[in-house]
């Protein structure tokens, strides 16, 4: 992979070369039946570039050993690759130090880790945790479990008809008992990009720490945890063009140091006797057992890949495509977009007259177009908009206007079937 | 993938547009709720039973065309049948939508329009939800039925 792979340097460093990008994703040249695949379910998971696949294969073929254990060279090389991946993720999120990056299975585990460590040691009876209506179930249920255990109260910031966070309501909900705000950076069902910096400022003004769920945001826009000022930030590797089963939690070092361990086991200790165990330092304190070494190294390759394309070209490309898709879809008779916030990115959730989303999904699939249908693990959002489900097209760096045309074409087939 | 018309047959589209036996059932003897968390399909089935015969069956709820039409056609198919007959039809219907090899049982009558579902494994749950819910109702099992 060269430093500027995928960008059209002959014209402008800010124009993404669709053909060169697409060539790097083997699955994009596959077919569904006799139709070329149009993959528009990126909010569920993104496809993987060859460099990530090659990294995984090379690791297992030539570098596999357990880490933090062996004195032999192979183990040292694996340890260096794993810790090198941590440094890459730290750079990607603009954390001040790699020790602030904890590897997890996914974003869900990152949130659960914070709930079970920071949450259980900080939240008591009558305390409050603040989330919003547009959270994914993974940023609702861990807090419900915590609140149930502790007798604490979950407060929910409402959203507008366009799908925007109500900041005045956030202010009203922040009180002396608020122990944490946990908020999504970018909604997976609406596309809304929340003003995280402002949320953090308002929460910090009351000494309330903030966790940000960056599952969706991190592959669409540059994330700088220091500029955002947040205290925790979670991402998942498989939405960053990386492997499944690996994610990362950024935590402010002072908070991580003060938090109790998450799971017990090997690697998270510095010494064990039956009388007393002392824990390893962060981030290892939170990584019990043999981690997903290959996954972490693959994630390192994935964030390097994103960096080599650059968020300048990615953001510009996806913004143009979102505008194109928004215009094309709103021109479809009977189609209504759910989620129309002025600040949104790369997600088009919609309903089509009285045709159920599931029927839409099946019919467009026969045209080779993969979209998500259902509640997208955000049932409260569906309730808020009074729909049982939506169809959702979500974009990534490799999507094109042609993909959108294929989707719109497939939607006319829905009309043909349902009349 | 087979032709979409095999899945969305005219009878199915008709029952989706104008579901039969749709609405509350006054004085129901048995009732059960079913949901399909993946799709958001939710329906409830209510029945009247006299001397072991389903004298009335109605349903309410929301869902995709397949689940709605399935519920609608089911209410027509089991009304007037005995509980045992209804259970037997359930088994036949289950085979119809899940078993790729099974010949279509002529005794299913109109319900045979759901044979196309077997080629769409992701949609089997939609077609079967009403039936699982009916079985829960007649077996007097009031836990919410889930096809997940």
Question: What this model shows, in words?
Answer:
The complex is a heterodimer of chains A (419) and B (148). Chain A is an alpha/beta fold and 419 residues long. Chain A folds into two domains: 18-47 and 310-418, Aspartate Aminotransferase, domain 1; 54-307, Aspartate Aminotransferase, domain 2, CATH 3.40.640.10. Chain A has 14 helices and 17 strands. In chain A, the strands form five sheets. Chain A has a seven-stranded mixed sheet, with helices on both faces. In chain A, helix 2 packs antiparallel against helix 10, helix 11 packs parallel to helix 14 (401-418) and helix 12 (357-365) packs across helix 14. With 148 residues, chain B is of the alpha+beta class. Chain B has one domain: Sufe protein. Chain: A (Alpha-Beta Complex), CATH 3.90.1010.10. Chain B has helices at residues 4-7, 10-17, 65-78, 83-98, 124-138; strands at 30-36, 41-50, 53-62, 145-146. The chains are: A alpha/beta (419), B alpha+beta (148). At the A-B interface, helix 12 and helix 14 of A face helix 1 of B.
């Amino acid at each position: 992979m060269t430093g500027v792979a995928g960008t059209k340097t002959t014209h402008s460093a800010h124009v993404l070369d669709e053909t060169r990008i697409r060539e790097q994703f083997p699955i994009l040249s596959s077919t569904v039946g006799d139709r070329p695949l149009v993959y528009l379910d990126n909010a569920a998971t993104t496809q993987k570039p060859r460099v990530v696949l090659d990294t995984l294969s090379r690791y297992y073929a030539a570098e596999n050993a357990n880490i933090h254990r062996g004195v032999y060279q192979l183990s040292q090389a694996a340890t260096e690759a794993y810790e090198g991946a941590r440094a890459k993720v730290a750079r990607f999120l603009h954390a001040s130090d790699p020790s602030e990056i904890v590897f997890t299975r996914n974003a869900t585990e990152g949130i659960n880790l914070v709930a079970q460590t920071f949450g259980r040691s900080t939240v008591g009876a009558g305390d409050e945790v603040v989330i919003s209506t547009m959270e994914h179930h993974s940023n609702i249920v861990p807090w419900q479990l915590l609140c149930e255990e502790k007798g604490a109260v979950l407060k929910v910031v409402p959203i507008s008809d366009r799908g925007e966070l109500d900041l005045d309501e956030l202010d009203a909900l922040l009180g002396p008992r608020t122990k944490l705000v946990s908020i999504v950076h970018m909604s997976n069902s609406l596309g809304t990009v929340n003003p995280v910096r402002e949320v953090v400022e308002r929460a910090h003004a009351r000494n309330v720490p903030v966790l940000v769920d960056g599952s969706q945001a991190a592959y669409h826009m540059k994330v700088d945890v220091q500029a955002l000022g947040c205290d925790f930030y979670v991402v998942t590797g498989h939405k960053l063009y990386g492997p499944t089963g690996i994610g990362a939690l950024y935590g402010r070092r002072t908070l991580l140091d003060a938090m109790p361990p998450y799971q017990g086991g090997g690697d998270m200790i510095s010494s064990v006797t039956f009388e007393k165990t002392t824990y390893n330092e962060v981030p290892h304190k939170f990584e019990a057992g043999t981690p997903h070494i290959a996954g972490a190294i693959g994630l390192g390759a994935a964030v390097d890949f994103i960096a080599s394309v650059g968020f300048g070209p990615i953001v510009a490309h996806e913004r143009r495509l979102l505008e194109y898709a928004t215009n094309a879809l709103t021109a479809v008779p009977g189609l209504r977009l759910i989620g129309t916030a002025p600040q949104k990115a790369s997600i088009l959730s919609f309903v089509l007259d009285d045709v159920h989303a599931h029927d839409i999904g099946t019919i467009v699939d026969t045209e080779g177009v993969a979209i998500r249908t259902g509640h997208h693990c955000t049932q409260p959002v569906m309730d808020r908009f009074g729909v049982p489900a939506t169809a959702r097209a979500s974009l990534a760096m490799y999507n094109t206007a042609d993909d959108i045309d294929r989707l719109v074409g497939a939607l006319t087939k829905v009309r043909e079937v349902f009349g | 993938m087979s032709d979409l018309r095999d899945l969305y047959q005219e009878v199915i589209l008709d029952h989706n547009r104008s579901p039969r036996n749709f609405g509350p059932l006054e004085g129901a003897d048995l009732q059960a709720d079913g949901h399909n968390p993946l799709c958001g399909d939710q329906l409830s089935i209510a029945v009247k039973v006299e001397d072991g015969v389903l004298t009335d069956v109605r349903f309410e709820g929301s869902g995709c065309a397949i689940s709605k039409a399935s519920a609608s056609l089911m209410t027509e198919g089991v009304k007037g049948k005995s509980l045992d007959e209804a259970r037997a039809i359930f088994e036949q219907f289950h085979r119809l939508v899940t078993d790729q090899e099974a010949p279509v049982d002529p005794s299913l009558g109109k319900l045979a329009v759901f044979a196309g579902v077997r080629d769409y494994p992701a949609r089997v749950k939609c077609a079967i939800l009403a039936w699982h819910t009916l079985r829960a109702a007649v077996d007097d099992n009031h836990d919410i039925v889930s096809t997940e």
